[in-house]
Write a structure and sequence with these properties.
single chain; alpha/beta; Pyruvate-ferredoxin Oxidoreductase, domain 3; Rossmann fold; 7-stranded mixed beta sheet; globular; disordered N terminus
């Protein structure tokens, strides 16, 4: 494995591949936690088929001495747990890729047998007591290649298997040591020369994925009610909040369908709660009438929309940025909204936290757009700062002459809560007067529509500007939104061009007023997005009055890779 040893100072890419139900997730979780405990920066993400068992799934783990948080195509080490591994990943495997697996399982797929580190996972595990320990054997082989000793990871094993019996813990320790010894004693074994970062620095960091970042942001935003119907990839947020509901006073309701979920959340806000729904495209399609109801009621609402490829069921476990226009135009009639699109874990936390306050303040729906790639990706990052995370409540105690939809100069009517004060808090899906009673006064109709839309002027004043990364005096500008930012930023950084910058939009509607100036300053502009129609480029044309030079689009259900997208950008520049 001398070719890998030459990569000192660079990150190493490890890919695990096998069938659903074969334990890839166990290897991934245990291995990444061992790496972090030993001072390595890690990044992990996965691609998987829509099935409970069978098929071929893979997980990428990047290991580095510096922060790393983007997907790459390159595979340095491939751990194959099942036949079909090489075929499944053949486009990413190179002559330099070292493969770890059982000769009896992968031998026929590997032309150069010297590239295969033959470790009989199942045989070793069976000798220990059960094939169930095969995954821990694989982890032992992997840590040997990073020169991490088994005794250095015992604490990680104890923590990982803390809910298991002492016998199971001891068997797993034995399996780890056996995998380690088998690997280091093979003739073609060579450890990888990649140094760890400062252990104390990495240890104090947190290791969370996109769904956990959104969930933590919701908790910091005061979320105390979530109603949703499970739909991948959004379900992880519902599960996270449900698991932590008792600690944070959250009522978590798995509704019978998405229509019920959105209407429950509207009712919760009406009663004074801070509610959220989490869903994906097909589920959100059922919620659109409820979104329109929130617009007419001027009800706050927070919607987490985890995108996946459509139309219809599409590719239910894959990724795409295909629902931007769905969120932008969802709901019949005209009413204001805000759409956030976090691309980093930090942004997911802070934007979700902000979503609750801003929904409450402007009495509008606020969307948080993520996607499968973002939800399932994780890396170590600094703990989120709670210092400025305040829960801002904007309802009032009502008086006897309270008018829920009072015509005001800024369009924001005082919001009351039933039972908090002497006033009657009316709510109706029909057009209404200032008290909230149904009306067909057409002149009043105009005033009410204008009142609702007037909020957009205030919202624009608080819009989040796009983030410029790179030189201020740029000639070329690479534009992205949401989950592509870490991938694009790494790709452009690796190009090393002093004339090229990245513009990252974490709020995609309404756009900040600076968007036009920043984009038109560039001679050449490229928008990168995970959809077929260039939805964000279209939005920029309509709402920022800019023309884009080039689009790089990907819509095969997989995310971009920083190494391959760098080549595409280079050709266009």
């Amino acid at each position: 494995m001398a070719n890998l040893s030459a990569k000192k100072g660079r990150d190493i890419s490890v890919v695990l591949c096998g069938q659903a139900g074969q334990g890839i997730q166990t290897v991934e979780k245990l291995f990444t936690r061992i790496l972090k405990a030993n001072g390595y920066h890690v990044f992990a993400t996965k691609e998987y088929m829509s099935r409970v068992r069978g098929g071929m799934n893979s997980t990428l783990i990047r290991i580095s001495d510096k922060p790393v948080c983007a997907f790459i195509d390159r595979i340095d080490i491939l751990v194959g747990l099942n036949k079909g591994t090489v075929k499944h990943l053949k486009k990413r495997i190179t002559p330099e890729t070292m493969i770890i697996g059982e000769m009896g399982v992968l031998g026929d797929e590997v032309e150069n047998k010297n590239r295969l580190l033959d470790i009989p996972f199942s045989e070793i595990a069976a000798n220990i007591g059960s094939k169930i320990y095969s995954n821990t054997v694989a982890v032992g082989a992997l840590i040997s290649m990073l020169s991490v000793k088994p005794e250095e990871v015992i604490d990680c094993l104890k923590q990982f298997f803390k809910d298991k019996s002492q016998e199971i813990l001891e068997k797993n320790i034995e399996a780890l040591k056996a995998g380690y010894e088998k690997a280091v004693n093979l003739e073609n074994f060579s450890s990888i020369k990649i140094k760890a970062a400062a252990i104390n620095e990495v240890k104090k960091q947190i290791l969370v994925n996109g769904s956990e970042a959104v969930g933590l942001g919701a908790i910091a935003g005061g979320c105390n009610f979530i109603s949703s119907y499970p739909m991948s990839p959004s379900t992880a947020v519902l599960v996270f909040l449900a698991q932590n509901s008792r600690d944070f006073g959250i009522l978590a309701e798995q509704a019978e369908d998405e229509i019920s979920a959105i209407n429950m959340a509207i009712g919760a806000w009406y009663a004074g709660a801070r509610a959220m729904v989490t869903t994906s495209g097909g589920g959100f399609a059922l919620m659109t009438e409820g979104i329109s109801l929130a617009g007419m009621l001027e009800s706050p609402m927070v919607i987490h929309l985890a995108q996946r490829p459509g139309p219809a069921t599409g590719l239910p476990t894959r990724t795409e940025q295909g629902d931007l226009e769905l969120a932008l135009y969802a709901g019949h009639g005209e009413f204001p909204r805000i759409i956030f699109a976090p691309g980093t874990l930090e942004d997911a936390f802070y934007l979700t936290q902000k979503a609750f306050n801003i929904a409450d303040k402007f009495q509008i729906p606020v969307f948080i757009l993520t996607d499968q790639y973002f939800i399932d990706s994780y890396y170590n990052t600094e703990p989120f700062n709670l210092k400025n995370c305040t829960v801002e409540k904007h309802f009032i105690e009502t008086s006897e002459n309270y008018r829920r939809y009072k015509l005001t100069e800024d369009g924001i009517s005082p919001r009351g809560i039933p039972g908090f004060g002497r006033g009657l808090v009316c709510a109706d899906s029909d057009e209404h007067d200032q008290e909230g009673h149904i009306t067909e006064d057409l002149e009043l109709r105009i005033k009410m529509v204008d009142k609702r839309l007037k909020k957009l002027d205030l919202i624009k004043q608080e819009s989040i500007p796009p983030e410029l990364l790179g030189p201020e005096n740029y000639e070329n500008l690479i534009i992205c939104w949401g989950s592509t930012i870490n991938i694009i930023n790494e790709a452009v950084s690796n190009l090393g061009r002093k004339d090229t910058a990245v513009l990252y939009f974490k709020q995609v509607y309404p756009l900040h007023e600076s968007a036009n100036k920043l984009i038109n300053k560039a001679s050449k502009t490229i928008v990168v997005e995970n959809n077929a129609a260039g939805q964000f480029a279209r939005l920029l044309k309509i709402h920022a009055d800019v023309n884009i030079s080039h689009n790089i689009l990907k819509y095969d259900g997989l995310c971009f890779a920083s190494d391959s997208i760098a080549e595409k950008i280079k050709k266009l520049l």
